[in-house]
Amino acid sequence: MNKSKLDSILLLAVLSIIWGSSFILMKKGLVSYSAPQVASMRILFAGLVFVPIIILRFKSIPWNKFGYILLFGILEVGIPPYLYTFAQTHVDSSTAGILNSLVPLFTLAIGMVVFKLRYRWTTTLGVFIGLLGAFIITFMKNGGSGQGLINLGNSYGLLIVFATLLYGIAGNVLKEKLNDVSGTMITAVAFVTLAIPAGIYLFTTNFLSIPITNHSNLYSLGAIIILAVFGSALAILLFSKLIKLSNALFASFVTYLIPFVSLLWGWMDGENISIIHFSSLVVIFLGIYIANKSEKRVKTG
Predict the structure, then answer these.
(1) 71-82 pLDDT tens trace
(2) Which residues contact 244 (CB under 8 A, 6 or more apart)?
């Protein structure tokens, strides 16, 4: 195995642990803060991590690619944090981790539709099977009698499905439009830029006084800081490096392992892990497997 392949696998493992733990950290942050506060603090704190890099390497910022960097940032770190935190006000962390595994399917679909990459018909079949798995975990009831099997009112999981769609677009933008730009620079510019509106919003709220009024809220603050530094700043940096070492599709395979980490954390935190969780995970993974059988692709047009 060559060094590049080994590095890719190691990055994949580290990212799986970091992002698999992100859902439980969001859950803990939501104990004391509102959903938009948690998301905004995650972006702001991650952005602060990269401020020194921007200052030291300001002249190296590729302004001719700023539009694509901003687009990547909005799709990868700007909108999804809000979708996930709003969803997790009603969806447990283990379910969020399972739904996150839709990323490879949307990476394939976006590559085919937007970036004109051609796949076999099994790709489309795999995407639909994966979405079936998402339907199961989102709308099937874990139990109860006399109330049917479908819970159409539980639609918050669709926010996570939409977030994975944005991740799929972002991965393709990074590989197709920013392949010649440093991953560190992409991540730094994206986070620092998006930290500005996030910070403006936060200072219109009471986020500073929350840990002061109740010291138990420091636990939530600590969870959000860990989430921002590791789950956002470090993870996105590693993810961009992984894509450059391999490709957007291989990098998105991190979602194979994320659900198992999130399920473990959910179980340790007392969440109800049922057959619905595992059956939906199997269906989603089946969809990914079928879709990936047609990984060979060529440019059209």
Answers:
(1) 999 999 899 999
(2) 179, 183
3-state secondary structure of 1: coil
- Domain boundaries of the chain, sorted by first residue: 13-299
- Tell me the residue type at 180: D
pTM recorded for the entire structure: 0.82
Polymer length of the chain:
301
User: pLDDT at position 5, please?
Assistant: 72
Neighbours of 216 (CB within 10 A): 9
Q: Which residue's structure tokens are 């948690």? A: 38
**299 φ, ψ (degrees, to nearest 5):** -70, 145
Alpha-helix residue ranges (DSSP H) falling in the chain: 3-29, 35-56, 66-73, 80-87, 93-99, 103-113, 121-139, 157-177, 183-202, 210-213, 218-226, 235-245, 248-252, 254-268, 275-292
- The count of C-alpha atoms lying within 13 angstroms of the C-alpha of 102, restricted to the half-sphere facing its C-beta, is 32
Q: Rounded CA gap, 47 and 36, in Å? A: 16
DSSP structure class, residue 150: B
Helix/strand/coil for 176: helix
